Design the sequence.
């Protein structure tokens, strides 16, 4: 997928307007772990901005670490989720103090949280929702992405804030909690080394489609008490996973919702951020050919309600509303 996106991105240079480069030689973009949309889209964005005259490189990253590194000036841009930027601005967990040098350039697309469980395990243990895992104190073999990613943050927060238990509690009643990449987690679920693999990703997630091609699974609904607790604590929203996307989903499944956002150093100059945002918007159609979820980008949702946005980005999005 990454090759296709990168090739497509190189074709945009003939159609995009030239914009002044940043004062520094090259902007540094921190994307996500290999195998996910963030990693692929990060490369495409860096290529698109570079072709537009704003030299940008892309590297791996994670939702939490990207926020910290942007605040410290170790990177200039990156991916995260909007709830994390809001938490950072307040100094809320997982951040130890308010981070004042990171803001949002755009909410790019909606982020959905998936609790993907082996169907045989769910049926054997009568699991109908996420809360059943805790109510029944199941000795579950659970995995999510590694600490420092937005997925681990959201999944852990769902248990801690919504159900009052942490990783230690799950282990104390006989379960295991491990951390894996998208591909490793998918394979471990298929090989019956995991019972549930949980993560956050876009609406039409290739990792979920891959899992469904390997074994029968269920995507667990997230209970209202979890959704309400997450909204109160982190400003997340509630989305539904639609039945027409996955064969394992036969009716809308409520889940924790957020936005994949492009974050930026707040002290990056306003003109540069305006031009970065402008180039992103003008190349939406090309970028969405590689990562379909980019089609959700729109001026009405681009400016976050629960996190700080960069003035240069706000200026652009308001100009096209």
Sequence:
């Amino acid at each position: 997928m990454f090759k296709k996106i990168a090739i497509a991105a190189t074709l945009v240079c003939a159609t995009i307007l030239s914009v002044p480069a940043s004062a520094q030689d090259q902007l540094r973009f921190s994307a996500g772990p290999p195998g996910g949309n963030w990693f692929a889209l990060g490369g495409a964005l860096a290529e698109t901005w570079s072709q537009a005259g704003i030299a940008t490189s892309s590297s791996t990253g994670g939702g939490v670490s990207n926020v910290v590194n942007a605040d410290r000036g170790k990177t200039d841009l990156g991916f995260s989720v909007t709830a994390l930027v809001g938490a950072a601005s307040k100094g809320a967990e997982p951040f130890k103090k308010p981070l004042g040098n990171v803001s949002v350039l755009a909410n790019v697309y909606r982020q959905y949280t998936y609790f993907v469980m082996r169907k045989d395990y769910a049926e054997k243990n009568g699991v109908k929702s996420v809360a059943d895992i805790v109510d029944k104190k199941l000795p579950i073999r659970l995995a999510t992405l590694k600490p420092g990613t937005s997925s681990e943050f959201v999944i852990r927060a769902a248990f801690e804030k919504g159900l009052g238990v942490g990783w230690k509690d799950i282990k104390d009643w006989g379960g295991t909690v491990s951390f894996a990449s998208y591909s490793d987690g998918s394979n471990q679920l298929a090989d019956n080394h995991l019972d549930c693999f949980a993560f956050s990703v876009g609406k039409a997630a290739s990792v979920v489609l891959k899992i469904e091609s390997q074994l029968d699974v269920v995507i667990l609904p997230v209970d209202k008490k979890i959704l309400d607790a997450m909204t109160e604590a982190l400003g997340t929203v509630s989305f539904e996973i639609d039945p027409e996307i996955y064969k394992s989903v036969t009716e809308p499944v409520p889940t924790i919702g957020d936005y994949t956002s492009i974050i930026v150093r707040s002290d990056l100059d306003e003109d540069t951020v305006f031009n970065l945002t402008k180039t992103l918007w003008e190349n939406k159609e090309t970028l969405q050919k590689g990562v379909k979820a980019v089609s959700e980008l729109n001026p009405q949702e681009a400016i976050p309600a629960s996190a700080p946005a960069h003035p240069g980005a706000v200026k652009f999005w308001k100009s096209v509303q």
About this structure: Residues 173 and 245 are 35 Å apart (CA to CA). The chain is about 40% helix and 20% strand.
